[in-house]
Amino acid sequence: MDTKGLSATAVAVLEAITNRRSIGRLTSECPDQHLVERVIQTTLFAPNHRHTQPWRFLVLAGDARIRGGEVLERSLVRRLEDPEAPSSLEARRSERAKFLRAPVIIIVAVEPSNEPNVSLDEEIAAGAAGVQNLLLASHAVGLAAVWRTGDSVRDEVVPTEFGFAQSSVIIGYVYLGYPDPGHVVKPRPNRLPSKNTTRWEGWK
Ligand SMILES: Cc1cc2nc3c(=O)[nH]c(=O)nc-3n(C[C@H](O)[C@H](O)[C@H](O)COP(=O)(O)O)c2cc1C
């Protein structure tokens, strides 16, 4: 990264954005609740058309992760043709255990405003910008995180099972904790060269 002429703050921000990675292998140590609250608060500063503040969070730790896993399992059961088949039982066990892979699970929902002139797309865009703030803040304070989804986020029953309003959309499950010292970060997927993504017009 070319940092020539940039302030130390600018370099720190750009480095955080560039160096943040998804880390799924975490230790079992649960971060302090205040630290988790602090990183969640950064979502409040995401850009948000009409200031609807549509983001909602359910933050699970300890045994609450087991109950959360049961919601995921019930969702899987609704999708399975034969939930009692041996392969289904194995898939259900695996789904039920998913939230135990991190000491903290932040379930992020967008509860769209029903004010006129507010579009669902923009509400979800604001929520996603909030999640990126949360991921960057986690990286900045030494936590590790990964944003996950899966078929359960498209299950209409799941938002209410997690206590969100029925109109909500689950946009992600953020798995949060401290990085396991043995974690291996996958090589970065190739980024498209900017000539493939950006057109410049009117520049001298
Ligand atoms: C909407 C969304 C859903 C995602 N769902 C998953 C997921 O289900 N499982 C997973 O391992 N990673 C998931 N990711 C994380 C991406 O795989 C990850 O960001 C990508 O591989 C780039 O890696 P990086 O975050 O380390 O740069 C998701 C990311 C986004 C934005």
**Contiguous helical run count:** 7
Mean pLDDT: 97
Query: Which spans have pLDDT < 50 for at least 5 consecutive residues?
Result: none
The CATH topology label is NADH Oxidase
Number of E-type strands:
4
Largest sheet: 4 strands, antiparallel
What is the CATH class name?
Alpha Beta
Strand-and-helix sequence, N→C? HHEHHEHEHEH
Give the distance, in angstroms, between the N- and C-terminal Cα atoms: 24 Å
C-alpha-based Rg, rounded: 19 Å
Beta-sheet strand percentage?
A: 5-15%
CATH superfamily: NADH Oxidase
Spatial arrangement of strands, main beta sheet: 1-2-4-3
Kindly describe this structure.
The protein is globular. The protein starts with 7 loop residues before the first helix and ends in a 7-residue tail after the last helix. The longest helix has 21 residues, at 120-140. 38% of the residues lie in helices and 14% in strands. α3 packs antiparallel against α4 (86-97). The protein has one domain: NADH Oxidase, CATH 3.40.109.10. It has helices spanning 8-19, 33-41, 64-79, 86-97, 120-140, 158-161, 194-197; strands at residues 55-61, 104-110, 144-148, 169-177. A four-stranded antiparallel β-sheet has the order 1-2-4-3. With 204 residues, the protein is α+β, with helices and mostly antiparallel strands. The model has no long low-confidence stretch (mean pLDDT 97). It is built from seven helices and four strands, in the order ααβααβαβαβα. Bound molecules: flavin mononucleotide.
